C-alpha cells in the first residue's frame, strides 16, 4: 500500500482517490501520527497544505527519515518541505500562482514524467516558490512562471525522491493520473491488485473470520452504503445477518416496498417494519429543523432497539460507514480529529454491547458503487441520489403531517421520474422537492385556488460539500411544473431553486 501523509490540503482525498483509481490501495494518515514502518508500505506521498513551510507552526515530518526507508513523492507543500529539508530555498513568491500552467519537461528520461507530453497542462495552487534546489537534486520540469515545477533527488543508492510543485491529483492536470501511475508502478513497484473483485473476496473472508458463528444486526436505510455493506455481510454469513428497514413515514413514494423488494432480490434477510404513525406522532407540533431531526433520530433508535430485542444471541452491529466518514482531518487551526457520527445509530454499539462490522470503512463512495456492481446489486439501487436520514421531514418546511407527506411524495415522484425519463437523473448529484409553508392564489378553470407552493431543487456536486444548482432545460422545467400542478391537488405553484452551496445548503432545513 501507499501512505499519504496529510498536511491539511483540500486535495488530499483526491490524491487518495487517484491512487485507488490506479488499483493501488492507500491510506491517508495525519502527518502528526507516529509512523510505524512495515513491509506492506511501498511508498509515501506528501500532500499539499494551506501552510507555508516557513511559518513557525507549519506541519512538518522528517522527510529524510521517510526517504531512507521508502520512495517519496512530494506534492506542492510536500515538494517544498522536501526541498527545504534537504537544503534548498523556499520563499514567498511575489504573486500567488493559481490555475493552469504548461509543463516544459527538462529531463526526458526520468521515470516519473515518462510518457508525459511536452506542454502538458498542470494545475498550480501555491504561494511559495522553490528558488533553489538542494545539492544533488535536479530539475525535471519548469513552467513559464516558475523554474522548479518538478524535481528529483539525483540517483544514489537510496530510495528515490520525486516532487511536484503542481497538483497531479486534480482534474485540470490533464496527465496527472499518468504521473501518479508512474510513481506507483514504476517508482514504487506496486502491483495493481486493489480491484473490486479482490476487495469482495477479502472482505467476505474478513467478515467470516470476525463473526465466526455469531449473528449480526443491522439497520438498513435503502441507501447505497448500507445496501452494499449488508450484501457483503450476507455473502459471508447468510441469514445470520438480520437487517431491519424501518418505514419512518418520511420516505419517498412507494420507497418502502420497492426497497424491500430489492433486498429480497439480492437475497438479504431484512425485516421491514412500518412505524409511520409513531413518527408522525413524534413530529406533531415540531417546526424547528433540528428538533425534527432529533425526534426522528431518537425514535429511530427506540424502534431499532425494540426490534433488536426480539432477536437473541446478537453480538455484532453492521454499519455502512465509508472512508470519508472516518478520515481524521488535519485542520488549519492545528491537529484535530473530526469524525462524523451520523452513521452511528446513536450510542447503540455501547448500549447493546455490540462489536462493529464496517466492511466499507476504507472505501470511497465511487469504490462502494464499484463493489456493488461486482456484487450484482441492481443498478438503480447503486446509482440513486443521496437522501437524508430525516427524509422528507426536512423537505416539508414547518410542521410535518401525513397529508403533507402524501402531497410531497406525489409531487416528488413526478419530478424524479421525469428526470429519469429525460436522462437527466445521472448527471445530477441530488434532486428533490420541497413543500413550502406558503399558500398563494391561483386559478384553475373558473375556480380560484389557494394552495401550497412547491420548490424544485437539483444540484451538481462531487461530494455534497459544495454544490451548484443544476441548469435544467427550461422546457423540462415547464413540463414538470405543468405535470405537478395538474396532477397534485394542493399545489398550484412551482418554483425552481437557483442557489448554490455555499452560501445556501442543498436541503432547505
Ligand atoms: P446540506 O443541506 O447540508 O446537505 O447542504 C448536504 C448533504 O447532506 C444531506 N443531509 C443529511 N443527511 N441527515 C442525513 O443523513 C441529515 O440530517 C442531513 N441533512 C442534510 C443532504 O441531503 C445532502 O446530501
TrEMBL record:
Q: Which GO terms describe its cellular component?
A: cytosol
Q: Which Pfam families match?
A: GATase, GMP_synt_C, NAD_synthase
Pathway assigned to this chain's UniProt record:
Purine metabolism; GMP biosynthesis; GMP from XMP (L-Gln route): step 1/1
Catalytic site positions:
76, 167, 169
- Enzyme Commission number(s): 6.3.5.2
Q: Name one GO molecular function term.
A: ATP binding
| CDD domains noted in UniProt | GATase1_GMP_Synthase, GMP_synthase_C
Looking at the record's lineage, which domain of life comes first?
Bacteria
Residue ranges of coiled coil: none
Q: Which UniProt keywords apply?
A: ATP-binding, Glutamine amidotransferase, GMP biosynthesis, Ligase, Nucleotide-binding, Purine biosynthesis
Q: Tell me what reaction this enzyme catalyses.
A: XMP + L-glutamine + ATP + H2O = GMP + L-glutamate + AMP + diphosphate + 2 H(+)
Residue span of the signal peptide, if any? none
* Uppermost EC category: ligase
Binding positions (ATP): 221-227
Query: Do you know which InterPro entries this protein is assigned to?
Result: Class_I_gatase-like, GATASE, GMP_synth_C, GMP_synth_GATase, GMP_synthase, GMPS_ATP_PPase_dom, NAD/GMP_synthase, Rossmann-like_a/b/a_fold
Q: Is Oxidoreductase a UniProt keyword of this protein?
A: no
**Domain (GMPS ATP-PPase) ranges:** 194-384
Which HAMAP family does the record match to this protein? GMP_synthase
Role noted for this protein: Catalyzes the synthesis of GMP from XMP.
NCBIfam families associated with the record: guaA_Cterm, guaA_Nterm, PRK00074.1
Q: How does it assemble?
A: Homodimer.
Q: What is this protein called?
A: GMP synthase [glutamine-hydrolyzing]
Amino acid at each position: 500500500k501507499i501512505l499519504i501523509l496529510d498536511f491539511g490540503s483540500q486535495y488530499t482525498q483526491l490524491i487518495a482517490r487517484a491512487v485507488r483509481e490506479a488499483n493501488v490501495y492507500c491510506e491517508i494518515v495525519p502527518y502528526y501520527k507516529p509512523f510505524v514502518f512495515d513491509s506492506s508500505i511501498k511508498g509515501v506521498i506528501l500532500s499539499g497544505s494551506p501552510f507555508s513551510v516557513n511559518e513557525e507552526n507549519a506541519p512538518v515530518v522528517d522527510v529524510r527519515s521517510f526517504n531512507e526507508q521508502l520512495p517519496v513523492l512530494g506534492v506542492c507543500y510536500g515538494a517544498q518541505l522536501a526541498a527545504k529539508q534537504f537544503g534548498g530555498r523556499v520563499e514567498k513568491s511575489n504573486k500567488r500562482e493559481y490555475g493552469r500552467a504548461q509543463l516544459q519537461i527538462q529531463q526526458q528520461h526520468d521515470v516519473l514524467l515518462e510518457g508525459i507530453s511536452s506542454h502538458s497542462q498542470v494545475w498550480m495552487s501555491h504561494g511559495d516558490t522553490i528558488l533553489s534546489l538542494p545539492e544533488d537534486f535536479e530539475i525535471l520540469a519548469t513552467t513559464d512562471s516558475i523554474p522548479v515545477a518538478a524535481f528529483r533527488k539525483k540517483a544514489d543508492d537510496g530510495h528515490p525522491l520525486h516532487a511536484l510543485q503542481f497538483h497531479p491529483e486534480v482534474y485540470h492536470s490533464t496527465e496527472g493520473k499518468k504521473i501518479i501511475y508512474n510513481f506507483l508502478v514504476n517508482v514504487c513497484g506496486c502491483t495493481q491488485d486493489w480491484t473490486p473483485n479482490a476487495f469482495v473476496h477479502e472482505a467476505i473472508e474478513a467478515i467470516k473470520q470476525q463473526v465466526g458463528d455469531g449473528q449480526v444486526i443491522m439497520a438498513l436505510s435503502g441507501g447505497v452504503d448500507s445496501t452494499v455493506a449488508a450484501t457483503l455481510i450476507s455473502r459471508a454469513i447468510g441469514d445470520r445477518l438480520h437487517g431491519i428497514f424501518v418505514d419512518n413515514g418520511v420516505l419517498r413514494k412507494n420507497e418502502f416496498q420497492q426497497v424491500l423488494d430489492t433486498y429480497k432480490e439480492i437475497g438479504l434477510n431484512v425485516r421491514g417494519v412500518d412505524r409511520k404513525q409513531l413518527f408522525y406522532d413524534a413530529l406533531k407540533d415540531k417546526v424547528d429543523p433540528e428538533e425534527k431531526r432529533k425526534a426522528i433520530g431518537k425514535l429511530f433508535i427506540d424502534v431499532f432497539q425494540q426490534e433488536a430485542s426480539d432477536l437473541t444471541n446478537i453480538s455484532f452491529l453492521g454499519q455502512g460507514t465509508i472512508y470519508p466518514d472516518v478520515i481524521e482531518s488535519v485542520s488549519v487551526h492545528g491537529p484535530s480529529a473530526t469524525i462524523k457520527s451520523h452513521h452511528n445509530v446513536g450510542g447503540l454499539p455501547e448500549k447493546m454491547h455490540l462489536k462493529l462490522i464496517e466492511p466499507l470503512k476504507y472505501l470511497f463512495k465511487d469504490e462502494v458503487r464499484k463493489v456493488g456492481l461486482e456484487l450484482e446489486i441492481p443498478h438503480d439501487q447503486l446509482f440513486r441520489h443521496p437522501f437524508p436520514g430525516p427524509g422528507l421531514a426536512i423537505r416539508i418546511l414547518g410542521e410535518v403531517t401525513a397529508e403533507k407527506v402524501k402531497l410531497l411524495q406525489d409531487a416528488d415522484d413526478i419530478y424524479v421520474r421525469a428526470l429519469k425519463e429525460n436522462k437527466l437523473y445521472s448527471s445530477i448529484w441530488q434532486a428533490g422537492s420541497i413543500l413550502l409553508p406558503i399558500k398563494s392564489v391561483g386559478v384553475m378553470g373558473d375556480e380560484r385556488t389557494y394552495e401550497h407552493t412547491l420548490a424544485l431543487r437539483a444540484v451538481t456536486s462531487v461530494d455534497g460539500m459544495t454544490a451548484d444548482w443544476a441548469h435544467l432545460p427550461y422546457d423540462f422545467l415547464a413540463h414538470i411544473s405543468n405535470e405537478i400542478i395538474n396532477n397534485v391537488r394542493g399545489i398550484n405553484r412551482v418554483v425552481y431553486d437557483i442557489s448554490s452551496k455555499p452560501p445556501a445548503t442543498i436541503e432547505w432545513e
